[in-house]
Each structure stands twice: as C-alpha cells, then as structure tokens.
Amino acid sequence: MLPSDTLENLLQHEWLETNGLGGFACGSVAGANTRRYHGLLTASLRPPVERYLLLSKLEETVVVGTRKTEISTNLYPGVVHPQGFHHLRTFQFAPIPTWTFLVAGIRIEKRVFLVDGENTVVIQYEVSESCSLEIRPLIAFRDYHSLTHANPALNPTLTGTPDGFSIEPYHGLPPLHVAHSATHLEPTSNWYHNFEYPREEERGLEFREDLFQPCCMYFTLGDGQVATIIASTGTHSAADAVELLQREINRRASLQPSPPRCNPLAVELLRAADQFIVKRGNLHSVIAGYPWFSDWGRDTMISLPGLALVTGRYEIAREILLAYSCAVDRGMIPNRFPDSGESPEYNTVDATLWMFEAVRQYAEATGDYQFIQANLYPTLKSIIDWHLFGTRHGIRCDADGLLSAGVEGVQLTWMDTKFTPRHGKAVEIQALWYNALRTIADLAQRFSDPEEESLAARIAADTLANFEKLFWNPESGCLFDRICPDGTPDPTMRPNQVLAMSLGYPMVDKDDALSILNAVERDLLTPFGLRTLAPSDPEYHPRHDSDAAYHQGTVWPWLLGPFIDACRRFRPDFDASSYLSAFPQHLKEVGLGSISETFDGDPPHRPTGCFAQAWSVAEILRAASSAKPEDYS
Asked: What's the predicted TM-score (pTM) here?
C-alpha cells in the first residue's frame, strides 16, 4: 500500500493487530495515536475482557553521524510534533503491519505484530545501511476506555532482567517485561503531556492524555541488521523474535484457502474474520468490534456462520455455542459480558433466538447432530419453555403465538438505543421466534422427541398464521415494523422485515417477498448496506453524528447479508456481485482489511462507529463466499 502524502489521510487509515485473547494493538498509519484506544499493547488480563493499555507508543529517532531525524508523529494542541510521517514511503497491513521510512538515503523497515495466545507485542526495525536508533517507550497503564495523566502515584523503577527490563508502575496491574537488543539503556522518568486524540474529540469525549517515558534504548546497527523490542506481560528474549515472527506468518498464511476456493473479496476478509475470534475460558467467543466492544451475545450469534462456518473452523463454532449455552439463565443468553468481569447482562430479546439460527446453520454445514443432541438440545428446549411461559423484561409468547417483549427503559432489540423503543411485537423477533420453533421441531423429530415436536409445530403454525394477519401493510406493500403494545401497527420503514424472508424458514410467500424487496431496495439499500430508516421519514438522520442517529438512518453493513439471502431465495438469477462491489475499496480505507460498523445514511456514506466490526465482516464474508471467484477480479 502506498499511503497518501497528506497527514489527514494517513491519520484516517487505521491498522489492527489482535492476539486471540481480546488483546490488541492499533493505530493510524501516520504513527500518531488519534484515539484513546490506539496503542502497541492493550492486554486482556482475563480473556477476553479486563483490557488495559500498557504500552502506548514508541518515540523513534534515527541517528546518522551527528544528524538526528525523528520518524514518529504526535498530535499536540495546535501542533504536530515530530512530523515523522514526512519520511514514510510505504505501508502494508498484511501479513503484518510494516512501515518503510527513508532517512538520509537509509531505508528503515518497521514491523509490528502481536503473538497469538499471548499479551505480547514485537516491534522490529531493519535498516539498509549502518545507523543508530534511539527508542523511547511511552506507557499508559490504564483501563483501555480511560485516559491517564501525570501523577505522583506512578512508580518509575526499572528492574533489570537478563534480556531487558521490567516496570510495574501501579500496584495491582501486571508488570510490563521489555526484552530488547539495544546496546545500552538510560533511565529517564519523563512525562509527555497533552497528546491529543481527535477521534475522541469528535465523539464528545475527553481527548487529551499524558504518557510516561521510563527510559531510552540505544541501538547501533549495521547494514541489514535488526533492532528488536518485545513488550509482554510474560517474559521473552529478544532472540525469540525470529521464531515468533515466522510462527505468526505461518499461522496467518494457514487462514487462506489453497488453492483459493472463493472470490478475492472473501479471501481478503479471512484474516479480518480471524481477528474477532477470542478465547473465553477454555472455549471461544467473538469480540463484537474493535477498538471498544467486548463479546456480545447477539453479535456473536449473528457472526458465527461467517466467522466460523464459512471459514471451516467447526471446532471453534462448537466452542462458541458451548460457551453461550453454559451461560444461559432463565432461557436467555447474555447480551454482553462486561469489560471488567462483572456478571453477564441479560437484556436482549433477539440474541437467544439468533442462537437457534446459528445452531441450524451449524447443523447444515457439518451434519454434526450428535454434538447438538448431547450438548445443546436440552438447553434449547429449556429456552423455548422459558419463552412460552415468560422470562425477563416481559418476554413471552402470547396466546396468538407471537412473541411480545419490552419494559420501560430497556431496549431489547438490536436497535437498542432509547431513540428507537420497539416494545411490543417487533417484526424480526417474530421471524426469529418462528425459526426457533421450526428448528426445535426439526431437531425433536430427528431425536425422536414427539412431545416437543408436536408442541413446537403447533405454536409455529399459530405464529405464522397470526403474523400473516397482523404484519402485512397493504398501503406500502411491505411489513409493519412492529405491533405496538396497544395493538396498533407501526408502519415505520425499517430493514428488520428482511429477516422474515432471509432465515431458514421464511414467513412470506414469493409475491409478498418480491414486493418487500422492492420497497427495501428503493428506500433503504446503499452500496454499504441497509439504512435503518427511510430518508422520507421525518426522524431520518442523514449523518451518524450522535446516538440519536444510530438506528435512525445510519447504514449497517451486516444487514446486507440477510438482504442478499432473501434476494437469492426469491429473485431468479440473482447476482450478488453488484451489491458487494463497494467493499474491496473500503478494505483499503479506515480500518485496513476490515469493514466498519456503520456508515452515514446519505452519500458519500462516510464510515462511522468501530473501524472493524465482527458482524459486518462476517455477513459480507458469508455473502461473498457464495459469489463466483471472478466476480471481484
């Protein structure tokens, strides 16, 4: 990749490294941190949560003779200093982030990567001619959602080790062990003040931070030699870097199909898909998005088919299903596992129902019904029972077979802000409930459980019949978005109705489906996904510039997956390639190699939200994997 020569463009491009534990490293291509989440090592102390940003960045100086040239970049109030981005010549994010700088005719190649399964970052500098480097680490040691400021509580003591040094600035946090190949080290104990993070300012949050510099490392290098720094919560020798690099390159290469079995867009997304899969105890889960989300039940279940089934990682799919099955309480899977390790939050109506769809697709992909019967089926039955007789937040099956949900102050659907209260009977909840009933009936038949099969089939029939009576909007030729608690239909034009056509068991016939698809395509479709509200609605927000806009017009890429599924089912000779054509270019922008959480509703559809989102990647990968290899060549 050849980045633009403007600082603003270099700041907009962001790279991401992950370690499979919930830990990560990320930053701008320019080298300046523009978010509180940017840093070289955010460690997960209780995977995949309790994340702390330990090593923020490195200040880097190239010394040639008596001339010193800084190649790092920082943003301070009213000034950019230093301006190392002027020396940047190339950047590539795969297989590992690599910068090439040119200083006084000397090429300096910088590599940064995280080690899978460890809270470890490796930074290397390879030079084309003899020179010296001065590297000054800047540490934060704080919760990754917070900011740090100069304070007397920090312990600056460096403890020497055979391969480097350790520092434990604050009691209660693990020490940072730094192995290096420097010729010598000088303790410094300096604070750097007032780093500015413009992305945080845009979000209306505190955006200035102080960072601590404990020392300076000095490297003297000859032609082709490499300076190495390994920062970790564990211990390493600088000599380990060669093996760690090769191991990580081999691991990432193994993610690619050989020979490629899917089109180039899908192949490009395989590495991004891997970044969201993390350990949770002895099992696996899915980080909803980088840089600020933890693992969420809804996002995990929607993402599972794309991240684990399309990619052939069936063991991981099994472990994800097991992890959430073990966390079921009162017939619900957690909506969220909090960052600080508190009790899981059970405040969603759809996450649990998405689990049925994930199980259905797992069975379809693997035929592994033995695993389902032994490990999941009893839990799935109990979930149906809880929904029939009622569980938290007013979630219950009414006499008409439809699922009702909602209490004051709690938003239970995926449109989960206070600006989109959807209490009552939401259209996608009925589709998911119907599919859950049909799925459990099919499993019950397979597992010779006639009582469960009969119960689920009977309720499913009532659900479908009353759905057909209540949800069709003849004036707009599509579905109502919900039936309100007082029984009145809500005609708001939203994308949720697509799920009534896209899941395993559709709830509409072909003629109605085609009418719905035409309406959705006319009012909601964009090159990057579906709008959450039609532009003609007075509540429509053309820009995602506040929480109020989150589901009031903002575009969500993940919705393109269900839309394409519905089109494939009901439109003869449907070709998905034109609906995915904007994403190859998007992978070169913002979160490099990944897909953003959201986009503005109006053109040019500026990317917003997290720069790397699990269900965005998963659903586009799943949709692209069914396209022809030549579609994106």
From this structure: 0.95
